[in-house]
Amino acid sequence: MEAQSSSDMLLSRKRRRESSTRDTEEAERLVKIPRCTVGLKHPAPFADELEPVTKKPYVRVNMEEAKRGTHPDRPVRVYADGIFDVFHSGHARALMQAKCLFPNTHLIVGVCSDDLTHKYKGFTVMNEDERYDAISHCRYVDEVVRNAPWTLTPEFLAKHRIDFVAHDDIPYSSAGSDDVYKHIKEAGMFAPTQRTEGISTSDIITRIVRDYDVYVRRNLQRGYTAKELNVSFINEKKYHLQERVDKVKRKVRDVEEKSKEFVQKVEEKSIDLIQKWEEKSREFIGNFLQMFGPEGALKHMLKEGKGRMLQAISPRQSPNSSPSREERSPSPTFRLPFFTKTSPPPSPPPHHSGARGYLVSEDDDDEDDES
Questions:
Q1: pLDDT number for residue 281
Q2: What is the residue-wise DSSP string for 176-218?
Q3: pTM summary value
Q4: Region 160-176 average pLDDT
């Protein structure tokens, strides 16, 4: 009943999605659809826990009917099997393709047990319970078959009412057969899917083996014991020593990076400082030349001051046209200060016959010039 209610819920959700798609078909071209999260609330049920199917005759659906779309009460039952060890996106993409093969699909996934897997393929990382649980939580899975057979028999196909088997088209050689899906392909029940390149369980295990030391050291740092990791005492000490050396290397690398950043900042600041110095020096030199240069302001100031000084100390020039003798005013008579008016003038010396008295006037000078 739980499986039927979950299938009804899926169908009703699909109808709502189809109706909303029809209503907003024109709006999608212009406006983006708002994001919404719709997911299942419960993991996929296991086949052995479901109620038995009603006793109706098992009639397969052909490819044309499946592609055209079947009745909601009769979905196309697609089966996909595998080991699904270390479940990854490649597994999920393969199951998504199987789920989307037909419009109305009920996806059944078979997971092989540990005994069967170890016998035909090898040791697994995850045990069977972990692999069953991982598949049941995949959103594309509707039903999980535990302890699935390695080769599909007609009885198994009829028991689970399987219409098609989904797998990649590459021949899968195992259990003494060139292709374990050969009889499925001959019966027209095979539906091919595409493998996801670049990821597989073998690739993931190869990465772990390649970086074994790194993962062991990481788990030792996280608290796992050497016994849990199957590491010897000597290797444990070696990994601890390597971890310490790596810590020192990381510290040295951090110091180098910080020193490089510091040197870079100092260089940038020094370049800025030098540029400022150059600008200030150019400005200082320009101001100095403007003040003390050959044609600077100081020279003009000195010239102007010199001219004013020369003009101040030089006598005034006489006018070009001097007045005549008659127009002149009588010159005042000057006397020496040590002679008085009553004292007679001294007699001239004998060797100066043309000497005059000490009474001097400007008129006498003019007369002498005329004689």
A1: 85
A2: TBS-TTHHHHHTT-EEEE---TT--HHHHHHHHHHTHHHHHHH
A3: 0.58
A4: 87
